[in-house]
């Protein structure tokens, strides 16, 4: 068997590992071992090395049992655009609520891995529900590796409102199924920025 693989490799017919396009969200963030950093230039032309690793968990809740959770993981070696090796797409479900984060190229993700940039990182959220009603966005976890100097703001375009999500980790809002501006991918964003 080893001989066959060697012959195929010499003939230019190499094999690549299978990679799933998406994976089910787990209860623990993926452990990525990269130690590289991303260098960015901020508005003042100052170079900053962004090396922060960590994660957030955000939940959309209708009540105690009708919930949907996402994981946003920060890794300096990752990409803001969708990558099948880093991210997991959201699977359409039959639940009463649905929550996704958006990659920079607008893929709906259950697990979104991207760099945390010192000049500011914005992550879009897509919220959905089967019925009109009152819902909550909850910041359920902020890993201890994200410094307390990083502000986490939840911005609501529909209500023209913003909330210090670290200080107030639950935000109540209405979804009106007859008004598409109250749900979907254009209402909410998370903004993370160094103080």
Describe this structure in words.
The protein starts with a helix and ends with a strand. It is globular and about 45 Å long. The strands form 2 sheets. Strands 3, 4, 5, 6, 7, 8, 9, 10, 11, 12 and 13 form an 11-stranded mixed beta sheet that branches. A two-stranded antiparallel sheet has the order 1-2. The model is unreliable at 1-48 (pLDDT under 50). It is mostly beta strands and 195 residues long. The chain is 5% helix and 44% strand. Strand 3 and strand 4 (67-74) form a beta hairpin. It contains 1 helix and 13 strands, in the order H-E-E-E-E-E-E-E-E-E-E-E-E-E.
Mean pLDDT: 81
Structure class: mainly beta
Secondary-structure element order, N to C: HEEEEEEEEEEEEE
State which percent range the strand residues make up.
35-45%
Number of DSSP helical runs: 1
Rg, Å, rounded:
19 Å
Helical residue percent?
under 10%
Runs with pLDDT <50, length 5+? 1-48
Q: How many strands in all?
A: 13
Shape: globular
User: Span between N and C termini?
Assistant: 58 Å
Characterize the main sheet. Answer: 11 strands, mixed
């Amino acid at each position: 068997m080893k001989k066959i693989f060697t012959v195929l490799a010499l003939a230019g017919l190499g094999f690549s590992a299978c990679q799933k396009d998406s994976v089910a969200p787990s209860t623990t963030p993926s452990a990525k071992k990269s130690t590289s950093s991303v260098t960015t230039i901020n508005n003042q032309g100052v170079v900053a090395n962004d090396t922060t690793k960590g994660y957030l968990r955000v939940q959309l809740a209708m009540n105690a049992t009708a919930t949907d959770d996402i994981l946003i993981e920060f890794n300096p070696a990752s990409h803001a655009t969708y990558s099948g090796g880093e991210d997991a797409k959201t699977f359409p479900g039959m639940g009463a609520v649905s929550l996704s984060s958006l990659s920079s190229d607008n893929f709906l993700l259950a697990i979104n891995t991207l760099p945390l940039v010192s000049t500011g990182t914005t992550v879009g959220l897509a919220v959905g529900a089967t019925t009109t009603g009152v819902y909550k966005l909850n910041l359920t976890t902020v890993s201890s590796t994200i410094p307390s100097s990083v502000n986490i703001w939840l911005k609501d375009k529909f209500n023209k409102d913003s909330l210090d999500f670290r200080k107030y980790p639950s935000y109540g809002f209405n979804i009106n199924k007859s008004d598409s501006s109250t749900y979907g991918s254009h209402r909410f964003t998370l903004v993370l920025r160094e103080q």
